[in-house]
Structure formats: structure tokens, C-alpha cells
Amino acid sequence: MSAAxxxxxxxxxxxxxxxAAGTVIEWYDFYLYGVLAAFFSTQFFPSGNDVAAxxxxxxxxxxxxAVRPFGAAFFGRLGDLTGRKFTFMLTIxxxxxxxxxxxxxxxxxxxxxxxxxxxxxxRLAQGLALGGxxxxxAIYVAEHSTDAKRGQNTSWIQTTATMGLLLALVIIGITRxxxxxxxxxxxxxxxxxxxxxxxxxxxxxxxVRLQETPLFTKLKASGKASTSPWRDSFGNHENRRLILIAxxxxxxxxxxxxxxxxxxxxxxxxxxxxxxxxxxxxxxGTALLLGTPFFVVFGRLSDRIGRKPVIIGGFALAAVTYYxxxxxxxxFAHPGGAFDxxxxxxxxxxxxxxxxxxxxxxxxxxxxxxxxxxxxxGPIAAFLVEFFPARxxxxxxxxxxxxxxxxxxxxxxxxxxxxxxxxxxxxxGLIYPIVVAVISIVIGSMxxxxxxxxxxxxxxxxxxxxxxxxxxxx
Length: 474
Hints:
Blueprint: H1 3-7, H2 12-35, H3 37-43, H4 50-66, H5 68-82, H6 84-103, H7 108-111, H8 114-142, H9 150-177, H10 181-188, H11 190-207, H12 214-221, H13 229-234, H14 237-272, H15 277-291, H16 293-305, H17 307-333, E1 338-340, E2 345-348, E3 351-352, H18 359-377, H19 380-387, H20 393-409, H21 412-423, H22 431-447, H23 465-472
Antiparallel strand pairs: 1-2, 2-3
Helix pairs in contact: 2-6, 2-8, 2-9, 2-11, 3-4, 4-8, 4-20, 4-21, 5-6, 5-8, 5-20, 6-8, 6-11, 8-9, 8-20, 9-15, 9-16, 9-19, 14-15, 14-17, 14-18, 14-20, 14-22, 15-18, 16-17, 16-18, 17-18, 17-22
């Protein structure tokens, strides 16, 4: 390849594809654990108390979220110092290795207490890697985009979390349907983890062809890049204020809407209502598939009317309608018996019942929640990119995003399960996402300034016309 060819920027569709492909796989790896949490509770924790084992399993799931802000700080600094490409190549390698090792990890019956310890360590590695991945991918696309289409272009990255969850559901579903239940519980659950090795290799092959973003290249060449991203991000009072506003006014609310509308909807159907896994996967998977295009719809809409009204509108709709939506889900699921607060599910004579769901109405109800997700999540990458300067963008963007999604969102399953068990009410878990969404409505409305018209290229002297033509060519 000639030097001229090597220096020519890739067209934007390839940039988006390469960034999104790796991010889908990272989310797939990360959410495998959550979908299979019930199996982990029997494989890696002491038997005898099923509720305690499930809570321990969910706590381990949450541990991956707990360390995401630390991964964001570490990899964010690395990305601001060395570049966007190297950092998100490293994160996908760490994620893929950790996930594959979960697939071969011995169980509690084989190695005792070392099993949950090793599982937690691998989960922590996954969380650290994800803490660096999202910011890199979102910034990589944003810094290849023109100002006018940043919401639309970065919204493709926003589809990846949902597509990763959908991919996990499809692969787990196919695996479960093609072997006896006892075999899947014994060893079949490992197959989706081991398959991630193939997916990671494919993503690495695609990503290795990428070059550094043109905006960051100009920033380095001009000598404007930060030499101390942590000090410049956290040592500056105004930037600390922006981080807090982004967290409480945007990413915290976005996180709980995302996890409630997709992940928690699946848990509620399968665990609380007693819908068979085949039906629950079909309902949520179909809703995800039908809802995914709306990420781009709302990303594009945010380019026209602004990020703030779209995101806050999603918070408001979720907060107002969650309770009636979940009541309707119960109605159309037709769970047998009555809700048993001690068991945390519908039961009869102390035994969980199997629901008789009406599939189409339930798909519609979950789809509505997915549309809320696309409203709050579709424009969030563009908003965060515009909220912070290029020289510390990777670090400053990643911190509120992963504090919001790692802590406020990541612990939602555990908090919801704890509220359900404590209050003995089937809908008690909705208290948490509704309250957080309302907080973000208030903070976001009061303190967030519309960012749609921010020109991120002005920091490096403007967007080069030749680059704009190459990046947006069909």
C-alpha cells in the first residue's frame, strides 16, 4: 500500500462498521453473564439457599459495573495520551480473553471457594475493559464526523449495546433449544462464552485496519493535546462541574431507562412472571429487533431539534408509564396463582407457576420500553462528545458515562431484586428507575445547555473540506 493510500481516511460507513462491530461483541461478552445469572448461582456459589445464591450471582454481575468508572479513568487517560485506536484495540482484547476464560472456569463443586473468587476477578476485568471501550468507539466515530451529522452518525454506536444483548439472547436461545435442559445447566452454558473467541478475532481483524481519528491527529500535531488528562479533567473546577451535571442530568437517567426497558424486562418476564425462557427470549428479542432502528431515528432527530429535548422526553415518558406498563405485562402474561412476596414471583401452594403469555401484546409492551431506550440513548454519545473538549474528551466523557451506566444502571438488577424481596411487591423494583429518571429530568432541565450547535472541529482549526468529502462520501 502506498503512503498516500495509507494516509487517506476511510469512508465513514467503514469507520462506523469497524467501531460498532467490536463494541457489539464487547456488549455481547458483558451481558452473557447477566442473561445466565440464574445458572451461575448454581454453578459458582454454595448450594442450600437459592435466593442468597441468586443475589450473590447478581452482585457478581454488578461487580463488573462497579469497576467500569475505574476502567474509564485508566483507559480514558490512555486514549487522551496515545490515541483512540490503540486504546479500543486493547480493551476488546482484554474483554475477549476474560470472557473465554469464564467458559472454562471450574465450578464451586470442583475447586470450592476459588470458583467465585476467580469469577469475580474475571468479571472485574470485563468491567475495566468495557470502561475503556465505549468512549473510544463513540469518540472515534464522532471525530470522523462533521458537526451537522454527529447525532446520526454516533447513534449507530448506540445500537451496539442493544444488538449485543440481542446477540446474546439468540446464541443462548439456540444453544438451550438444541440440548437437554440438564446438559445446558451442566456444561452447555459455557458454549456462548467460548464462541466469543471467534467474534473477538473477527473484530480485531477489522479494527486493525483503522487509523487514528483525524481530529486527534490534528490535535497532537498542533501541540494542543493534554499531557495530564486526569489533572485537566478533575483538577479543573469547571470541568468537574460538567462531569457531575452530565452524570446526574443525563447518564444516570439514561442508564436506568436502558436497563429497565431491556434487561430488567426480560428478568421480570422470566423470573417474576414465570414466562418460559423460549417465550421470554422471543418477546424481548423481537422487541429489541423492532426497536433498534429508532436509535438512528432519534440520533438524527437530535441533529435537528437538539439532544436535550429528546433525552429528557425519554426520561419523562419512562417515569410516567413504567408502572402501568408492568401491570399490563402481568395481565397479558397470565401468571398462575398469586404473587408470593417470599419467593419473589407468582406461585401457588408455595411453588412457582408457569405463565400462559399472550405474545403479541407483550412484544408491544416491551417494544415501547425499547423506544424509550432509543430516545435517551440514541443522542447520548453526541451530547457527551460535545460537552467536553477534545484534549480531555476520552477521560471526561468516559467518567460520567460509566458512573451512570456502571453504578446507577449496573446495580439496577440487584437493587430491584432487593426491593422486591424486602417490600414483597411485584412492582417494587420500579421505584428505583422512576426516582433516578425524575432526578435526571430535574437536573438536566435546570443545568444542561443544549449542545447540538457545538463545533468540535473549531478546537483544531476547523473541519478540513477534503476530509469532510472523503468521510461522508457514499
